[in-house]
Every structure is written in C-alpha cells, then in structure tokens.
Design goal:
about 5% strand; about 65% helix; 3-stranded antiparallel sheet; about 750 residues; 434 Repressor (Amino-terminal Domain); 5-stranded parallel sheet; mainly alpha; Rossmann fold
C-alpha cells in the first residue's frame, strides 16, 4: 500500500522517479524499490523525508505515514495498556514539530521534550502524534498528567505516577515494593525491552520526570512542560521540541478545521482580527471557533467582541495567570442554559480530578435523571469532557474560572449548601461501599447523620463493585477530605478517613492511608474525640509498618495507646496492641509479638468484645507456634475457632484454620495439618478471597509433601502458582521452585 500511495502522490505532482530522487537525496533505485513494495518496512526518516518533499499535510500525511507501518503492529495487543486520552478533533498545523517527533522513532534519542507557553497546544500535539504513531508501539501506551502547573497547586508526585503505571502494567498494589526506588526499579523492569510509548504530560521540572523514565531504548517518551527541562536535554540527551504560537497560516487552518473553509475564506479580514486577538494560541482559537459555532454569529461580530477584550489576551504570550482567557471562556459560558450554567459554576467547587454523574447530581441538588442534559450541554460547549462513560473532567483553567463565577454569582448560602451535599455524597457513598466490603467491621465511632436534602449517594452492590468504586473515586475522595478540612466539616474528615481504611488495607495503599489519617489527627483533637485521634495515630502507624518504617510506626502506636487510655477505650488499646504484635513479627521478634497479642486479648476481654478477642486469641496461638510452643498454640487457636463459629465470621475462621494447620505441621503432624489447611482453603474459596487463600495453598502443599503425597502437593502448588502469577506476586518464583524440585 505504501508503494502505491508513493507512486500516486509522485504522479499527481507530475514528477518522474528521478525528480523525486533529486528532491529527497535518495537514489533513483531506492525510489523504485519503495514504489515496487520491495522494502518491507521503510525507515521512519525516509518516510518523513518523502512526505515533506511531496508536500503532504493533514489526512493525506497521516494515511501516508500509517501505510508505512506493518499492519500487524497497528492494533494494540490484548491486555496491553492503552492509556492515551482521545485524539484532538480538528488538529491543524505543527508539521515541523510532528516531523521532529517522527524522527525520534528512528533516531538515537528516545525522549522528546515539548515545551512552550501555556495554551500553546503542547498536550494537543503530544496526544495527536501519539495516536498517529501508536501502531509502532505494539506493547502499549502509558499516559499520566503530572499536573506540574495545576492551578490548585496539586502536583502528581512521582510515587503516584509510578504506582499508576504499575497498575496499568498489571502489578497489584499489594505486590508493589514499599519504597519509591524499588517501585521505579520494578516499573523499569516491566518496561525493559518492550516497544512502548510513554507520555508524561504537564511536568513541572526534570526532578518530577526522572523517576518515570524507563531506561530502555525500546520505549519512546514524550514529555510536555511549560519549563524547557534543560536538565533532561543535557542529562539524558532528550530531544527538545519548542512550541511557539501557531503561524498565521496555521491559525487560519485551525479555524478552518473547526468552522469549515468556506466560512473562513468568506471573511479573511475578520479571520485575521480573530487570529491576532487570540495571539495565535490554539486554546484561545479553539474557544473562539466554538463561540462562532454555538452563537451562529458572523465572524465579524466575534472579531468585534475579541477586540473589546483583546487586552486580556495579550498576556497569553508570556504570562502564566489563570485570568488570561476569561473573556474567551465567557462566550461559551454565556451560551449555556440556566441549569447548565449553574452546574458549571458549582463544579468549580469540586476539587477533582474527575466527577461522576451521581456526584454532579448531588452537587447540584438534582435527581440523577435530571443531570444528564446539563452535562451533555457542557460537553457540547467544550466546557467539560467525558473521560469515560459517566465520568467527567475539565481543563484546569476552566475549573478556576468556574470557581470564580460561583463566588461572583452564587450566594454564600448556596455555595455552602452545595459543598455540604458534595461532602455528604462522598462520605455516605464511601461508608456504604466500606460496609459492603467488610460487613463485620466494628461500627463507626461517629455515626453518619442523614445526607443533606438533594444528595444522592452511590450504593455499589457486591464486594467487587464496591472495591471498583473505591478504585475509581480514590483520588476524588482524598481531595474531598482536604476540602472538608478546609471548609470546617470536621466530622466528615474523620468519617471519610474511617470509611477508606478497609479499602486502603485491601489494596495496599499505604500512602493514601497515611494521608487521610494524618489529616484526621488535628481535627479529632480539636473537637475532643480522643478515641478517633488514637485511631488516627494507629492507622498512620499501620501505614508506616507496611512501608517498613518501624521506628515511626512504634512512635505512632505509643501515641495511640496513650490517647486510647485517656479516652478509656479498651477496644482501641486492644487493636493497637494487635498492631504492635504485627510490628514485632515483622521485626523478627515473635516473643514481643506474643506479649502484645496477649495484651490485646486482655483489653478485648475487659470490653466484652468477644469477636475481636477471638481474632486476638488466634494471633496468640500463631506466635506460640512460631516459638515452637505447640500445645499453648493449639489451646488458643481452638478457643478462637469456637468463638468465631459463634459469630459466623468465615474470614476469621479461615485464618484460624490456617493457623491450626501451621501448628500441626510444625508439631510434626502433617496429616492433621492437611485437614486444617483444606478447611481454610474451602472458606477462602467461599469468600472469593484468593489472595489470602494462595499462601494457605502453599502451606497445604508443604504438608502434603511432608506426608509423602507428592502428587497432591504439586496439585495445590500449581493452584497457588496460578493465583500468584495472576497477581504478579513475588511468591510465584518460590512456588515455581517447589514444583521444579523432584
């Protein structure tokens, strides 16, 4: 196909093969071979050279370049990441920059840095080129918005970006290393040798980018930033691609792509005035075109409006102020119906990064059935984008503009009511989802009041959907908790932290757990809820424990014990001693762990919390077993099991049967161990908890092997290996080694 297109374009120019060879510097023989299809995969530099010589632009150029890509490379393979945002509609110009990016594919540099003033179209260029080149990256595309110049000041930390990439590459949260350095190492190992495209959008500086560089020449990285990122250019040889404002011709082409060539050709003087007033910036030009389309006004009328507000747009050349495009934004806003305009303003109260349709309905106080029309109107006006079905995002500057409008046009009482509904929406939704995931959890210390009128909380059904809801809304929940703290919704700050804990433990979100509970500490102390302050310190300690920061964890646990004792909270002290037992176990001190587990039993006994006491008894038995004290271990675990069966706590029973299997195996009774482990496995299967069940399968295999049944051992080890492999868990290698030994 490439050869046929090449020959067709050459003939349309009226050129011979000799003419084309002379214009490109290629040999006549090379041109002939390309046209005859005797070159399987033309070099990217050659393809770009031919496209430039033939004067190809727009769709013709895209088709020409795509035809040079082997067809088996174009569709993404199943299971590979494909994170690119949608391509830019009506993209125009930037041929020189596109050619430089094309050259990165075949050149020595594998990193390109797109830099330029705000609104110049860095992201648009990066995304458009990425879609055009996606076929050359069969192993997938990764994308992250680093929010380097976020108006709200929220940077995406490298740790959060790397965690997102590991998620996309199939690494479960609980299998990721604790430290950033280790996570970066795992990310680079996953990408090594793979032909991938990585887009790092809106970087603040080189330090934010360096941990995200893959370190393999097979992957191409495109970085966008307002900063020139000289450190990357000098340090790793990145290819700098500087974007200036569009040329006058390119600006006109952009307007023509949005409005149609006939309308643009019909009034060249007004087009020239619009281009000049918009400072040839794609952002302003795109919004100006939307103004023409939505209003139906003549070009000269829009040009006159721009002339009146032109002094505001002059600053777009160099300044970095959120007020630069207010006048242009106002045209789209002025075209909205009253319900859509109100929703747009109220969305300025949402801290982002994305909002669901139900959350938007609660924010506006609308029934869910009535929120779709104003949302669609905002999308049509380019004031909102549908990121995924039912989830909406907006440009950062639009968020600032919406917030300013809300302050100017909506009264203080209306704004406060909207924020109340928004906070209630997320608090009640998270509480419900947490109860679905962990229905046996102790009641929340501060019960929720009914949500404010007009609030429509989400109620995901089933554990899988509830966890998926948390996955989707996690960033928004963290932002909402910050907003609640800023606006004085103290109780909601504590309730949100509480509602997120199960999810944070299940998914291994150590940083998220630490963040929400650190925010809860001063609030709980300020309102005199010492038991919540103690729980906050305990959960911060848990996050530190999971991150292997043992001194910090111990310090937090000691503060928690002090606060729980002051509050007279026996249960809180019991849970803290359980956490201290875990800390001691991870430190390799089972005797200290046994001590704290025993203290937990005493505290739960004092409070009459028998279900918690049952789990603490199981822990006591486990630590006795670790110390070789098998008789004491059996006594405590059997007591635990009796209590847990009374409470029909299948999860606790599964762990206790696992402990009993461990005790019998360590005591030299493999047949009895097999019986206990099999019961644990059955319970984990009934619960659908394969992650916790896999280690039990490994131990069951060990007991089968000790009993002399190698065939049964290999059968359950294979089951465990399949689970660990699916989770990308490091224990997969250990189990594989067991299977390889004969």
């Amino acid at each position: 196909m490439f050869g046929r297109l090449l020959r067709g374009h050459r003939r349309r120019q009226g050129w011979t093969q000799e003419d084309l060879a002379a214009k490109t510097g290629l040999s006549v023989r090379a041109v002939g071979k390309l046209e005859a299809g005797r070159v399987a995969v033309p070099r990217p530099q050659t393809v770009n050279l031919l496209a430039a010589a033939l004067g190809l632009t727009g769709a013709d150029r895209d088709e020409f370049l795509a035809s040079a890509t082997p067809s088996d490379e174009r569709p993404p393979a199943a299971g590979v990441p494909a994170q690119l945002p949608p391509d830019v509609s009506g993209f125009a110009g930037r041929e020189a920059q596109l050619a430089r990016l094309d050259a990165v594919l075949g050149g020595a540099a594998s990193i390109a840095v797109l830099s330029g003033t705000p609104g110049v179209g860095k992201t648009a260029l990066a995304i458009h080129w990425a879609h055009r080149a996606a076929g050359r990256f069969p192993d997938g595309q990764l994308y992250v918005n680093l929010r380097g110049f976020d108006p709200g000041g929220r940077l995406t930390p490298p740790a959060e970006a790397v965690r997102g990439f590991l998620d996309a590459l199939g690494v479960p949260p609980d299998a990721a290393p604790a430290s950033l350095d280790s996570q970066v190492g795992l990310y680079r190992s996953k990408v090594a040798g793979r032909r991938m495209l990585i887009v790092l959008d809106n970087a603040r500086d080189a330090d934010q980018v360096r941990p995200l560089l893959p370190g393999t020449p097979s992957a191409v990285v495109v970085v966008t930033s307002r900063d020139r990122l000289t450190g990357l250019v000098a340090g790793v040889g990145a290819e700098p691609v500087m974007l200036d404002p569009l040329s006058t011709v390119e600006s006109r082409d952009l307007l023509a792509s949005r409005l149609g060539p006939d309308q643009v050709d019909g009034d060249p003087e007004s087009v020239q005035r619009i281009v000049a007033a918009c400072a040839r910036l794609p952002l302003a030009l795109t919004i100006a075109a939307a103004r023409v389309r939505q209003s139906g006004f003549a070009l000269r009328d829009v040009a006159a409006e721009l002339d009146e507000a032109g002094h505001r747009l002059d600053a777009l050349d160099t300044a970095d102020r959120t007020s630069q495009v207010r006048a242009v934004f106002s045209w789209s806003y002025a075209s909205l119906s009253p319900p859509a305009a109100r929703l747009f303003r109220l969305l300025g109260l949402h801290p982002g990064p994305a909002v669901s349709a139900p959350a938007a309905a609660s924010l506006a106080g609308h029934p869910p059935s009535g929120i779709r029309p104003p949302l669609l109107e905002l999308i049509q006006a380019n004031l909102l984008a549908e990121q995924a079905p039912g989830r909406y995002v907006r440009h950062d500057l639009l968020g600032v503009y919406a917030a300013e409008l809300c302050r100017a046009e909506d009264g203080e009482e209306e704004r406060a009511a909207a924020v109340r509904r928004m906070v209630d929406h997320y608090t009640h939704s998270a509480y419900h989802a947490d109860r679905v995931v962990y229905p046996l959890r102790d009641p929340i210390p501060i019960p929720l009041d009914p949500p404010a009128p007009g609030t429509v909380p989400e109620r995901p059904a089933g554990e899988e959907r509830a966890l998926a809801w948390f996955d989707t809304e996690h960033a928004a929940l963290l932002a909402i908790q910050r907003r609640a703290a800023e606006d004085g919704f103290d109780v909601a700050v504590l309730q949100l932290a509480w509602a997120l804990r199960t999810f944070h433990v299940y998914r291994g979100h150590r940083a998220g757990m630490a963040t929400v509970w650190r925010a809860a500490i001063p609030v709980a102390k300020r309102i005199g809820r010492l038991e919540m302050a103690g729980e906050a310190h305990r959960c911060v300690g848990l996050a530190a424990t999971y991150a292997d920061d043992y001194p910090s964890a111990d310090e937090q646990y000691q503060q928690a014990l002090r606060l729980f004792a002051e509050a007279g909270d026996d249960n809180g002290q019991g849970y803290t001693h359980q956490s201290l037992a875990l800390l001691s176990e991870r430190r390799g001190d089972p005797r200290s762990a046994l001590h704290h587990a025993g203290r937990a039993v005493d505290r739960f006994q004092a409070s009459g919390h028998d279900r918690a006491r049952a789990k603490a008894l199981n822990a006591v038995g486990w630590y006795h077993a670790m110390l070789g004290e098998h008789e004491q271990a059996l006594v405590h675990c059997e007591q635990s099991l009796e209590l847990l069966e009374r409470f029909t706590d299948a999860y606790g029973q599964a762990h206790t049967w696992d402990s009993l299997g461990y005790i019998h195996h360590r005591a030299g009774h493999p047949d009895r161990a097999v019986e206990c482990y099999r019961r644990a496995v059955e319970l984990f299967d009934e619960l659908g908890n394969h992650g916790d069940g896999a280690p039990t399968l490994v131990r069951l295999g060990d007991s089968y092997a000790a009993a002399g049944d190698r065939e049964a051992a290999e059968g359950v080890w294979r089951q465990a290996l399949a689970i660990f492999t699916a989770l990308d868990h490091p224990e997969a290698a250990t189990v594989a080694a067991k299977l390889s030994v004969r």
